[in-house]
Amino acid sequence: MFAVALVLLLLADAYFVFNTLVDVFPFNNVREAKRSEQITEVSLNGPVMLVPAVLLVIAGLTGLPVLAYAGGGLELLILLSGLAVWWLPYLVGVTVPWAAAGTGETWAGLHARTYAKTIIVLPGRKGRPRPNLEHMILHALFFAAAICTFAAAGTV
User: Fold this and answer.
1) Where does the chain cross the membrane (predicted)?
2) pLDDT value at residue 32
3) What are the residue boundaries of the structural domains of the chain, listed by start?
Protein backbone atom coordinates (compact mmCIF):
# COMPACT_ATOMS: atom_id res chain seq x y z
CA MET A 1 0.00 0.00 0.00
CA PHE A 2 2.96 2.30 0.66
CA ALA A 3 4.01 2.28 -3.00
CA VAL A 4 0.45 2.83 -4.23
CA ALA A 5 0.01 5.79 -1.89
CA LEU A 6 3.32 7.32 -2.94
CA VAL A 7 2.55 6.91 -6.64
CA LEU A 8 -0.89 8.48 -6.22
CA LEU A 9 0.51 11.43 -4.25
CA LEU A 10 3.18 12.09 -6.88
CA LEU A 11 0.74 11.50 -9.74
CA ALA A 12 -1.74 14.02 -8.32
CA ASP A 13 1.00 16.65 -8.05
CA ALA A 14 2.37 15.92 -11.54
CA TYR A 15 -1.15 15.96 -13.00
CA PHE A 16 -1.78 19.34 -11.36
CA VAL A 17 1.47 20.86 -12.64
CA PHE A 18 0.98 19.46 -16.16
CA ASN A 19 -2.59 20.70 -16.43
CA THR A 20 -1.64 24.12 -15.08
CA LEU A 21 1.24 24.67 -17.51
CA VAL A 22 0.57 22.59 -20.65
CA ASP A 23 -2.21 23.43 -23.10
CA VAL A 24 -4.28 20.32 -23.85
CA PHE A 25 -7.45 22.09 -24.89
CA PRO A 26 -10.33 21.28 -24.57
CA PHE A 27 -9.35 19.20 -21.53
CA ASN A 28 -7.92 22.30 -19.91
CA ASN A 29 -7.80 25.90 -21.04
CA VAL A 30 -4.26 26.96 -20.27
CA ARG A 31 -4.25 29.17 -23.36
CA GLU A 32 -6.78 31.47 -21.70
CA ALA A 33 -4.88 31.74 -18.40
CA LYS A 34 -2.22 34.39 -18.00
CA ARG A 35 1.30 32.97 -17.69
CA SER A 36 1.70 34.85 -14.40
CA GLU A 37 -1.42 33.08 -13.08
CA GLN A 38 -0.02 29.71 -14.12
CA ILE A 39 3.35 30.34 -12.48
CA THR A 40 1.75 31.64 -9.30
CA GLU A 41 -0.57 28.64 -9.06
CA VAL A 42 2.21 26.11 -9.60
CA SER A 43 4.71 27.85 -7.32
CA LEU A 44 2.20 28.12 -4.46
CA ASN A 45 0.31 24.85 -4.75
CA GLY A 46 2.84 22.45 -6.28
CA PRO A 47 5.22 22.38 -3.30
CA VAL A 48 2.33 22.08 -0.83
CA MET A 49 1.05 19.09 -2.81
CA LEU A 50 4.49 17.43 -2.48
CA VAL A 51 4.52 17.61 1.31
CA PRO A 52 2.26 14.54 1.83
CA ALA A 53 4.61 12.44 -0.33
CA VAL A 54 7.64 13.71 1.60
CA LEU A 55 5.95 12.94 4.91
CA LEU A 56 5.04 9.45 3.70
CA VAL A 57 8.63 8.74 2.62
CA ILE A 58 10.05 10.03 5.91
CA ALA A 59 7.49 7.92 7.79
CA GLY A 60 8.63 4.86 5.86
CA LEU A 61 12.29 5.59 6.54
CA THR A 62 11.86 6.36 10.24
CA GLY A 63 9.04 3.99 11.12
CA LEU A 64 6.95 6.89 12.44
CA PRO A 65 3.39 6.34 11.21
CA VAL A 66 2.29 9.68 12.66
CA LEU A 67 4.12 11.37 9.76
CA ALA A 68 2.21 9.28 7.21
CA TYR A 69 -1.05 10.12 8.98
CA ALA A 70 -0.07 13.80 8.83
CA GLY A 71 0.57 13.40 5.10
CA GLY A 72 -2.83 11.79 4.63
CA GLY A 73 -4.42 14.58 6.64
CA LEU A 74 -2.74 17.24 4.55
CA GLU A 75 -3.83 15.49 1.35
CA LEU A 76 -7.37 15.48 2.71
CA LEU A 77 -7.13 19.22 3.41
CA ILE A 78 -5.88 19.80 -0.15
CA LEU A 79 -8.88 17.84 -1.43
CA LEU A 80 -11.29 19.78 0.78
CA SER A 81 -9.83 23.06 -0.43
CA GLY A 82 -10.32 22.01 -4.05
CA LEU A 83 -13.84 20.85 -3.35
CA ALA A 84 -14.61 24.17 -1.66
CA VAL A 85 -13.37 26.15 -4.68
CA TRP A 86 -15.14 24.04 -7.29
CA TRP A 87 -18.16 22.40 -5.68
CA LEU A 88 -19.51 25.01 -3.25
CA PRO A 89 -20.23 27.53 -6.03
CA TYR A 90 -21.81 24.83 -8.18
CA LEU A 91 -23.91 23.12 -5.53
CA VAL A 92 -24.92 25.96 -3.19
CA GLY A 93 -23.83 29.17 -4.92
CA VAL A 94 -21.19 30.06 -2.30
CA THR A 95 -17.72 31.15 -3.39
CA VAL A 96 -14.78 30.82 -1.02
CA PRO A 97 -12.67 33.99 -0.63
CA TRP A 98 -9.48 32.44 -2.04
CA ALA A 99 -11.08 31.03 -5.22
CA ALA A 100 -9.70 33.75 -7.48
CA ALA A 101 -6.96 35.08 -5.19
CA GLY A 102 -4.43 37.30 -6.88
CA THR A 103 -6.27 37.51 -10.20
CA GLY A 104 -8.27 40.68 -9.61
CA GLU A 105 -11.39 38.83 -10.82
CA THR A 106 -14.36 37.13 -9.26
CA TRP A 107 -14.45 33.33 -9.33
CA ALA A 108 -17.33 33.49 -11.81
CA GLY A 109 -15.31 35.79 -14.08
CA LEU A 110 -12.15 33.70 -13.82
CA HIS A 111 -14.14 30.54 -14.49
CA ALA A 112 -15.85 32.08 -17.51
CA ARG A 113 -12.50 33.20 -18.93
CA THR A 114 -10.41 30.11 -18.23
CA TYR A 115 -12.59 27.04 -17.64
CA ALA A 116 -16.03 27.47 -19.22
CA LYS A 117 -14.83 26.29 -22.64
CA THR A 118 -13.23 23.11 -21.30
CA ILE A 119 -14.87 19.70 -21.06
CA ILE A 120 -17.65 19.94 -18.49
CA VAL A 121 -19.87 16.93 -17.95
CA LEU A 122 -22.14 18.34 -15.23
CA PRO A 123 -25.42 20.05 -16.07
CA GLY A 124 -25.72 23.80 -15.58
CA ARG A 125 -27.20 25.12 -12.34
CA LYS A 126 -28.60 28.64 -12.46
CA GLY A 127 -25.55 30.01 -14.29
CA ARG A 128 -23.14 28.90 -11.56
CA PRO A 129 -19.55 27.93 -12.42
CA ARG A 130 -19.31 24.15 -12.93
CA PRO A 131 -16.39 21.85 -12.11
CA ASN A 132 -14.71 20.74 -15.32
CA LEU A 133 -13.55 17.20 -16.05
CA GLU A 134 -9.90 18.13 -15.48
CA HIS A 135 -10.63 19.12 -11.88
CA MET A 136 -13.03 16.25 -11.25
CA ILE A 137 -10.17 13.87 -12.10
CA LEU A 138 -7.76 15.86 -9.92
CA HIS A 139 -10.17 15.67 -6.99
CA ALA A 140 -10.53 11.91 -7.49
CA LEU A 141 -6.73 11.58 -7.43
CA PHE A 142 -6.54 13.61 -4.21
CA PHE A 143 -9.22 11.42 -2.63
CA ALA A 144 -7.56 8.15 -3.67
CA ALA A 145 -4.15 9.42 -2.54
CA ALA A 146 -5.50 10.48 0.86
CA ILE A 147 -7.24 7.14 1.46
CA CYS A 148 -4.21 5.13 0.38
CA THR A 149 -1.88 7.30 2.47
CA PHE A 150 -3.99 6.67 5.56
CA ALA A 151 -3.96 2.94 4.74
CA ALA A 152 -0.18 3.02 4.21
CA ALA A 153 0.28 4.79 7.56
CA GLY A 154 -1.16 1.73 9.24
CA THR A 155 1.62 -0.41 7.75
CA VAL A 156 4.58 1.87 8.59
Assistant:
1) 49-69, 76-100, 136-154
2) 85
3) 2-153
